[in-house]
Amino acid sequence: MILTEEELIQIRRHLHQIPELALKEFKTHDYLLNIIKSFNQDYLKIEVPQSLPTAILVLVKGKNPQRTIGYRADIDALPVNEKTNLPYASKNPNVMHACGHDIHMTVALGLLNYFSENQPQDNLLFFFQPAEESESGGRQAYEKGIFHDEFKPDEFYGLHDNPALPAGTIGCRMGTLFAGTTEVNIDITGKSGHAAFPQNANDTVVAAASLIMQIQTIISRSIDPIQSGVVTLGKIEAGIIRNVIAGHARIEGTIRGLTQKMIVQIDQRLKDICEGIARSYNLDVELQLNQGGYWPVENNPELTKQFISYMKNNSQVNYVETAPAMTGEDFGFLLAKFPGVMFWLGVEDNSELHSATLTPNESSIMRGIEAIKGFLIYRMEK
Q1: Active-site positions?
Q2: Is 287 helix (H, G, I), strand (E, B) or coil?
Q3: How far apart are CA 233 and CA 180, in angstroms?
Q4: Do 15 and 61 fall within a single domain?
Q5: Would the pTM count as exceeding 0.85?
Q6: Which residues have CB under 8 Å from 58's CB, separation 6+?
Q7: What is the pLDDT of residues 213-269, one digit of tens each?
Q8: Residue 204 above 90 pLDDT?
Q9: Residue 82 sits in which domain range?
Q10: Can you tell me the distance from the alpha carbon of 12 to that of 7, in angstroms, rounded to the nearest whole number?
């Protein structure tokens, strides 16, 4: 049977009550699996990877498959204390679906439910992914080899909810949808000493100040002004008391860039500057860069063109072109391995993503399902 809009809303509300953090999505996994097993199984093949046990792969076997089309939905939540006062608010203290992954899962279930009753032309692979918010679940899935044999997609699609867009609106763009992000940790080690005898010490605060100012030139002087990149240093620690020269300083920050090429370029400039400071001040500077799986979400040109064309020409869909977002999304790693498209689904709310008061408009669920279902059928005819 095809799930009704009311049944889908109830599924979403149940998922909203049981949010779980990255790689701990056990109840979520079991609930999803129970729902999936309640669908018509004639065309379905379910696999739970041992190496990533909260993930679920569901293959829908096509009538005359020419390709396998992947569709991904992330399933983890955030360490946020919910303040919506909804009757179906989170039952887990300090954990909330504040990024709308409950919407993502529900839309995926709606699509899977439809194609379990209406056999598609091509194979469809639904990937319920753990650990998007942290732990780089997409990268882990790829590197652990869970996409294998018939469970390996030829192309991949996925959505992200967007409270700034009207409910049910589809947003997309050619090129980059989400920036890539990299964590930056810098440890500067010199020599501590008495504040009255600087000649006997090696002051890491002075070196850190110089390093911070030089890093500010990376975006202004090394990156094309037409493109967008951000280096933010949000935390600095040094010293223990006012009259002791600090022998150690630590700086923490992030890099964001619209292409992987740009991030690699920023990484290299950071390395150059850190090496220069180490030589200039005769101290040790250790730079750690951790990108994990949070690569830029770079949409495939040909597939994105088809996706946008379909959405623009569908009178039932409200389509808008969106600007790139400087926030991160680990679907970018998978799109670096498989051609595909990520897009927005409007959920119309005054609160931002990751907010304790995020309350997506639930009418977006069925509208999203209908728009994506239509595109997938269209894609299978190409």
Answers
A1: 74, 133
A2: strand
A3: 16
A4: yes
A5: yes
A6: 36, 44, 45, 46, 47, 112, 125, 126, 128
A7: 999 999 999 998 888 899 999 999 999 999 999 999 999 999 999 999 999 999 999
A8: yes
A9: 5-177+296-380
A10: 9
